[in-house]
Amino acid sequence: MSRDLYDIKQQLAEQRRLQEALDNKLTFALTQIDQNVQSQTSIMQGSISGMEGMIRDQQQQMERLNQQFQAVSVTIESLARRGGINGGAVQPPGPARSGGAAEQAYQTALAQSQQGQHDQARESLRQALELNPSQATRIDILYLLGLTMMELRELDSAEGHFRELITLDSADPKAWASFERIAQIKRTQGDNATALQILRAIDEQYREQPTAAQFGLINIEQVRARIQEIEAGSAGAAAPPRPTL
User: Which of 77, 242, 232 is nearest to 170 (CA)?
Assistant: First the structure.
């Protein structure tokens, strides 16, 4: 009997040892699982944080692009309301203007510009603006002054003159050309996003009303080529174009 009790005790002790070993293994396994879960959770949280950052960056970029698009749209809508773009046929040039001090100063500046004398042309054009020109002459002066400032690499000033022209009479064909010149300025300054928005707007409006470019101040194929260059990311900083006089 004593031997039997001893054997039973030994068996119970062995079972307890085995149970403790199993419990230890189970605890270790559960710990490993918990650590893996925590590690995966940390990785997932990091990935989620990274994705959230990317989403925020994309949202900010979209917001900037939307603001630029709205700025372009305002200009387009302004032109449309005033009949310059998609709001009616472009008005043909007005009747020939009579002479006058402002007109003579403009013609002098035109000749100087054609000869590459851009500094002298700028002064002649500024003088012409001070001589109370007619609206038609003022449009010519502003357009040539914008081109002249582009030649002199004074791009902000050039853009200001083009914008003033668009505000003065958006129905004039040179308003279209001024809009394209602003896109070229933006591209030169590295603002391809704004340039692309403007060029796309020109192309879209041209498709709806192709006769709007009938005066030859816009080369729509060049506009589309610039769109493709910017979209392909292959265009460098473009130099301002030579004036079309």
Answer: 77
